[in-house]
Give the backbone structure.
Amino acid sequence: MASAEKLIEVKHLKKFFPLSGGVFRKVLGYVRAVDDVTFDIYKGETLGLVGESGCGKTTTGRTILRLLPATAGEILFEGEDVTKMSRGDLLRLRRNMSIVFQDPMASLDPRLTIKNAVGEPLLVNGIARGHRLRNMVLELLEKVGLNEDHLNRFPHEFSGGQRQRVCIARALALRPKFIVMDEPTSSTDVSVQAQTLNLMKDLQEEFDLTYLFISHNLSVVKHMSDRVAVMYLGKIVELTPGDIFDDAMHPYSAALVSAVPVPNPALRGRAEILAGEVPSPINPPSGCRFHPRCRFATEHCKDEIPELRDMGNGHMVACHYAGELDLKHKEELLVDTGSMAEV
């Protein structure tokens, strides 16, 4: 159950990657992966972070954990600024923050048995070793639906869903308060996805966990999240406390929702196919970054960056015309519903 107490506060976060070239490796520009992002995550909640591939979702999650250094901005964990912590303070904080990566095979050392992979955080932090370590690892594996027979196996001996369960067990090893879930179901089939999602919800309730759930699958995010933040080209364009399927107020969010497959597409109407391609984060558009692809864009959108505005009940939208647009009016779109694809 989410509380009113903030666990994570992200304020004007930026993460730029330099582009260098020439004989002297001179910096020629920057990839603006995350550009002035602000949001909060409350204790016990799941905040879903969605958007197209390359929009900065994963970079945001890794920067919050300080796996990547922030270019600018603040990241407060229980009131402490992560970006300014010393190495010693950061090592202490690591026990309270963890991550489940997108590809479980790439995040598990193929030379380590499952016992050693899951037990490594316990061993490194001096919590357990020997027989006690084995028992603690076995307890963690049982929490995620594995058993004693899996202790001495290697990652290649498991299916994709089982490997992801091992990664979840490893993330839980130090009993963290906050876990970044970086597309944890993208490498598994649909039946295994459902099992993994239900497992994560059960573990959240049992261990009082707080999640940042990163995904491009809106249906999964709807199932998992208490609130949803929509990201486009390094910026948060909408943050809704309700159902993004019913409450989308930004044209980009509405386009994403319109492209989600449904059992009977005829009941939902035609999908909106966005014009053009996502602009380069090296040289993003002026003003609203979505304006080159937005059918409602005006000159004002090209000139001025829209700020996140509260449209009521904590529903934040970065659009100059939020609340004034008829986003569900798509009679002019002549798109075959059979061509719809998952966002």
Summary: The mean pLDDT is 88. DSSP finds eleven helices and twelve strands in the chain. The chain has two domains: 6-96+176-339, 107-175.
